Amino acid sequence: MSAGMKIQPARAVGSGGKGRSRFIGVALTALAACLFSGNAFAWSLKEAAAPYKGTTISIVGLDRPSYKAAQKLTPEFEKETGINVQWTNFPYESTLKEETLNFVANSEQFDVILTDVVWPVNFAGAGWALPLKQFMDDPKLADPELDLKDFFPVWLASFTVDGKLYGLPFDSYAGLLFYNKAMFKEAGIENPPATWDELKAAAEKLTNKDKKVYGYALQSARGETQTADAFARFLWPWGGQFLDIPNKKILVNDAKSVAGMEFRQSLLDVMPSGIVSDDHSQVVEMLSQKQVAMITEWSAFYPTLSTGPVASDLGIAPEPKGPDGAYAAFGGFAYMISSQVAKEKQDAGWLFVQWLTSKEMAMPLIENGAVVARQSADKDPAAQAKFPNLKPMVETWETATVPDWRPQLQCYPRFSDIVSDWGSRIELGQTPVKQGLDSMAKDLNSYMDSSGCWDHGNTPQKYISMYK
User: Fold this and answer.
1) Structure pTM?
2) Under a CB-based contact definition with an 8 Å cutoff, are residues 410 and 246 in contact?
3) Cα dihedral: 134, 140, 144, 150 (round 10)
4) Using an 8 Å Cβ cutoff, are 451 and 137 in contact?
5) 3: pLDDT confidence band, cut at 50, 70 and 90?
6) Are strands 168-180 and 330-337 parallel, antiparallel or unpaired?
7) How far apart are CA 128 and CA 153, in angstroms?
8) What is the C-alpha to C-alpha distance for residues 215 and 200, in angstroms, rounded to an integer?
9) CA-CA distance, 98 to 94, in Å (whole number)?
10) Distance CA 348, CA 335 (A)
11) CA 214 to chain centre
12) Could you give the angle at the alpha carbon of 381 between the alpha carbons of 379 and 387, nearest 5°?
């Protein structure tokens, strides 16, 4: 009802008092329905943000496509809310260190924190991040259209610690198989390999060492790439795991893990020499320049490949299955709210995170090169027709991966260093597979026991059922 609208006195229907009362009752009911309908008092971002107009919030980002897309769209949020957003981008390798220093020093430098899938237990365990329930339970701050069930369950589970959700997913990756369709056709290969054995057989056909063309390339650079890509990719599909946190047991040297690493070694003959020093950018470039026919890489590289020299011949499929089933690489990020900053900045930061990860923003982000974990956008037929990376991503997140792909440990950086060190030695042939894995297990056990790290881990797989 507008401010200037006047309510006219009700006229009686018929001659009796009952008619007059009935009419007034109907009129008041109609008026109440109008005034209190969802449309009359619908939640709006602009009204929710009004108390925080002029507030400046600091957001951590990376130099990757999803964050470039987010920063391009951020002025829309600023215009709608009057909240100023200041982005600070770091290289991935230094992000955890920079954020940890911020918290240890209580510098309040960052209001919205970026967390990798292996960091939630660091921030939540130390009390540096806030559970999101307090924002989602506040009717002034919570968008009724947030719709948590629209996120893929595997992603919400990844950022749940002790049963509490700490982050909303953003920049969400699946490991995919990228391949050159023209090279496949020339070699007489009709379909992308569905299993690792099929990939090896296809790679042997596609390899021509005289022309320096290879069937497959596996990014294996020492560091997190060796741990999360080159090592983990041949652990889970063979039935191996890094560790069993509840029972305090390292599993990297059991028979299944050994079988997976031995298979990895068998692929060296169909890969370029020096692969152990190659990172993501190198193998993506090799596929782009038609020096290799296949790579297993993060879905985030689709924008790069789809606009490069291989674009017209680019094929995309789920990662191959192993003897134990489909376990594709899993990685990505979420945004958390710092517990150390003023409530005004926490609330404003939440409004930004809620907006950025909303269903409404999913397609604009995808259109600008980002990857998101919103089912409504990723499963949209029109979107899948335009962006062929979406369909295999959806299949991966629904049926072919685990949130425990890398263990969530507060001591993860050193854990990863040990895996990377021995994983690189094995791949270089400096030590036999079983001997190297036994050494890796020994060093991991020693570190986990001496650091007390067993008591500071999280197993997100158990939380998937919470979000289905």
Assistant:
1) 0.89
2) no
3) -40
4) no
5) very low
6) antiparallel
7) 24
8) 8
9) 6
10) 13
11) 30
12) 80
